[in-house]
Amino acid sequence: MPGLSRVAMDSTEAMSIKYNTMVYELKQRGKHVLVMSLGEAYFDIPLFPMDELPQAEVHHYSHSRGLLALRRKLAQYFHAEYAVDFDPDEEVIITAGSKAAIHMTFMSILNPGDEVIYSEPAWVSYPEQIRLCYATPVGVRYQKSVYEFEEFITPKTKAIVINNPHNPSGQVLSRKELEHILDLARKHNLWVLSDEAYSDFVWGEEFISLARLDPNKEHAIVFNSMSKNYGISGWRVGYVIANKAVISNVLKVNQHLITCPATILQHYLARHFHQLLEITKPQIQAVLCKRKQVAAYMDQIGLSYLPGSSTFYLFASIAPSRLSSEEFCTRLLQDEYVSIVPGVGYGESCDAFVRISVGAASLEENQLGLRKIKELIEKTS
Ligand code: PLP
Asked: Which of 180, 188, 248, 273 is a good FRET partner for 117, with 20 to 30 A between their CA atoms?
């Protein structure tokens, strides 16, 4: 057999998807699984009629920056909601999910050998996407704060990635922390990629989009997505906001890889943008409230987790279990039919953690799953 790409062979499976695939397979075999591993919250959302959309257009490619009507809606939303202004003509691209937007942006800013800094726990795809660009991921161990980032900067550093609000801890970065990161970027001439996919899942804190603090987008590149905030992960609609030069490069990559996201869905989202928000916003609040109750229950039964109150995730410690996080999650799934995600997928420094998602199961089901986690920790300590 002819050889295969080394970077692709060396890349690891996305840990969250790996465990969710195991869940699908168990369900196919008729098992009931308590799912606390999904990267989404389940909303009750209607499906508006598709035949109201412009029939002459929906079957064809859209503009490869994304449908202008949707770009305009997003620009209005960012202005009203996050005090961020961007030009819908030249400073945004809508594409097939923010995962693709992030990868295409890495492809647009990185050269082989460049280094990219991010803190652990880190979303599973950052290191792999960076490696796929022949660049080097530099994961900062989990207890270090953004104020310690500077010691990881070398002449090869090209960018810092932040995830705000943070999957999996639920932490929201403060204005002071964001200002500090931007100061580093100015001092060392770096890009700052701010992944804001959970921007509306914020509880009792102020969320500041990075682009608000860098209005000319000299260093800030912002990603967002309809997957989490709108509860439509399967539609694959995400976007990147950056200055004109960055977007021009992403546009070329997008034209060669994706062309445009599904036109029919873009028309649908442009048409029902505000209606959908009215439907999903209260449901986001309900999910955040459930997260708070889950956290209180964890306090009550003695399960500790990293600080944070936003998103629908908690990053829980499994110490003093002697199992690795993968062994722990596999055993919990096989013996108890409870699915969670191993912490090691979020960085090597996170093997004593597991990610819990409260988005799909009820409070009572989450509480049952947490008791199972606690029991397994006790049994394996
Ligand atoms: N960024 C973070 C932090 C995520 O958790 C996810 C999905 O799990 C994504 C980006 C990608 O989301 P999508 O490609 O569905 O927009």
From this structure: 248
* Residue 236 CA, closest ligand 1 atom number: 15
Locate 154 and state its tokens. 């070398």
Looking at the fold, whether 21 and 109 belong to one and the same domain comes out as: no
Residue 187, C-beta contacts closer than 8 angstroms, at least 6 positions apart: none
- Determine the atom of ligand 1 nearest the C-alpha atom of 96: 14
Whether residues 113 and 215 fall in one domain: yes
3-state secondary structure (DSSP) of residue 365: helix
Of all protein residues, the one whose alpha carbon is nearest to atom 7 of ligand 1 is 39
The domain that holds 258 is classified in CATH as: 3.40.640.10
Domain boundary among the residues 218, 248, 274 is at 274
Q: What's the pLDDT tens digit per position in 358-373?
A: 999 999 999 999 999 9
Say yes or no: 281 and 262 in one domain: no
Q: Closest residue (by CA) to atom 8 of ligand 1?
A: 39
C-alpha to C-alpha distance for 284 and 117, rounded to whole angstroms: 30
**134 Rama class: left (phi>0) / alpha (psi -120 to 50) / beta:** left
What residue type is 263 in one-letter code? T
Ligand 1 binding pocket, CB closer than 6 Å: 39, 97-99, 123, 163, 167, 195, 197, 225, 227, 233, 238
Assess if residue 349 is contained within a domain: yes
- The pLDDT tens digits of the residues spanning 177-233 come to 999 999 999 999 999 999 999 999 999 899 999 999 999 999 999 999 999 999 999
